[in-house]
Recover the amino acids of this structure.
């Protein structure tokens, strides 16, 4: 992991930078997928936790099966409140700064610095991986038979993204209802943190 990110984790600074709402993506050794969301209650009394099971389908609902419970805000960072036994968060994928932007004889200018710093804890690479991971979970439930697909997460990122784009185009053309369901999954489960704030997979990572 990037040393700067590791330092922010070890010192606890990521917690100070963290903001709700968030959605944490989890997987166990058997390949079962979960998404856990956390959002501040409107009255400020605590945090609402949502556990979505991404490995069981319900054709009658637009969103995955979900169980909810409330916790005190002070308990939010006790990971057993969010992460079920046997599950682990996805590994965070950072994006190193290209050397040409920060050379010893030519330090990075302020504009580039602010941009790179803003994405340090919520990289586009990680967001794209989460998008493809969520699509893979959705497709394994609803498209396995119709598209005769295989799990795509083990292939090279650029190849995986081509597969995902092709499958999404096929779904949008063949099944508007299923496409609408995917858009609901994406809208509710794929949360992009504000500029400069960390993704949940960093904050709630397992040791």
């Amino acid at each position: 992991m990037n040393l700067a990110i590791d330092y922010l984790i070890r010192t606890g600074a990521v917690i100070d930078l963290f903001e709700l709402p968030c959605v944490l993506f989890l997987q166990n050794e058997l390949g079962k997928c979960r998404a856990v969301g956390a959002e501040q209650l409107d009255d400020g009394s605590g945090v609402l936790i949502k556990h979505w099971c991404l490995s069981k389908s319900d054709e009658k609902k637009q969103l995955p099966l979900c169980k909810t419970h409330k916790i005190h805000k002070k308990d939010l960072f006790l990971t057993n409140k969010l992460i079920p036994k046997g599950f682990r968060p996805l590994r965070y994928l950072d994006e190193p700064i290209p050397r040409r932007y920060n050379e010893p004889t030519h330090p990075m200018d302020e504009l580039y610095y602010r941009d790179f710093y803003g994405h340090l804890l919520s990289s586009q690479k990680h967001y794209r991986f989460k998008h493809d991971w969520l699509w893979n979970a959705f497709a394994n439930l609803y498209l396995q038979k119709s598209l005769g697909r295989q799990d795509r997460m083990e292939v090279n990122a650029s190849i995986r993204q081509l597969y995902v784009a092709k499958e999404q185009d096929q779904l949008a053309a063949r099944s508007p209802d299923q496409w609408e369901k995917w858009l609901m999954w994406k809208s509710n489960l794929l949360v992009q943190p504000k500029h400069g704030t960390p993704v949940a997979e960093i904050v709630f990572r397992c040791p």
Remarks:
- Helices lie at 3-10, 13-17, 110-118, 124-142, 144-147, 157-174, 176-189, 200-203.
- The first helix runs from residue 3 to 10.
